[in-house]
Amino acid sequence: MDEADGPKANGAGGGGGKDRDTAVSERRFRFLVAGYAVSSYGTFLNMVALNLFVYETTGRALAMGLFMAVRLASGFVAGLAVGGLLARFSAKSIMLWANVGQGSVMLVLILAPESLVTGALMAVSVVIGACGTLFMVALRSSIPEMVGEDRRAWANSLSITGRSLAMVAGFASAGVVVSLVGYTAAFLLDMATFVVCAVTVALLPIAGGKGSASAVGAPGTEKAGKAGKSEQTAKGEKGGPRWRPVAFLALAAAPGLGLMVALRGVDAFGSSSHNAALPIYSTSLDASNPAVFVSAFWCVWALGNIGAQQVIQRYAQRTGRSVGALGFGYGTVVMSAAFIAAFAGFPLAVTAVIALIAGAADGLTEVAYTSHLQTLPATLRGHAFGLSATFENLGFGVGMILVAAALDRFSPLAVVGWSHGAAIVVAVVFLLRVAGLRRRAERTGRAGLRKEEAVEGRPDRGDRDGAEVSRG
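Given the sequence above, the corresponding structure tokens read:
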């Protein structure tokens, strides 16, 4: 009875009710992003604080490298497993327990006696690495169910903006927090950020994963419910889970998608080079205070990233389109070229502009990539994001090892040049692939239109632009 009366109360066709539901889902998503930004601040804070604490506790730089390696390896394994977890559990439960796990392990570190600190640190690296990947994949893969397919570019941009702001705040305040209040207080603050995010997730109805059909008031609930049934059917085949084949099936679901994920891994490899080279390059500029250039570079980079998100949000709101696969390819080329130029020894004012461009291009690629993977069916989306996270962790981890060795023999410009140069080469191959797919789609579309005209006397005017490659 309520459903029958709904359209009358809100105008013809129930358009007002749909707008109201959209507004509610967007408001809830903003709250979720706020909680995510708070926990991201904790993540970036502990990147600095934990590395400093590991070095101070062990007195060995090798221990810091081992800590980071364990963290990346945990993220690698979690990326392989998260698709299967999303087929069994709701995205909300995964996001909730990911934050609970991170907060709990920080408490273990705080309470650990001195004799067990090293073991507690290893536990922290495992849990933080795995839970960070689980939360990120669960969030990104469930965005279409949370806000609707047509608002995913806006939602991706908003979440990336929150994360970028948190990164700047976390990196900028880490040294101050540790020096003023000490490691224990820094770890308590870190734990509190995860508690805030966990409470936010617990209070909100979040769609996605196996439980997406039960979320109240979320757009796409019916579609998510059907996807959940498909997941259950797939899970039941041959009596058990088959997450590995499904993960690779996700890459074969659309032409060029496997190459896109591979490019993301190569891009992560390039990112390891500028992350490792920045402190060395900054020291060559000002040996007495090398942190100044690094901090300034990342702050300007974040400004470019946030500015790009604002432009993308307005573009998506005005046109209803995402930037698409081509945006990802071109953005990767510009971003990699900008990072190479940042180490070329230009004046500081020019370098600041380069950092701004790098941040803007990075923001573009992040939104384009995430939005594109979200066009996959719900049954494959979690597996694709999980496999993508695995490729990214692998690329970054291998890159850190190779780059660290290369920086002992070559200049930062040379190391960053060949690392990001590899990303540019793969990006060009990807762009050629996308262009070829689009030309083929256009030829097929024209042939279909001619056939339709012959049969019905008028063309089918449905929107098929980029259907095989991107919805943007």
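The two ends are 39 Å apart (CA to CA). Try to locate this feature in the token string yourself.
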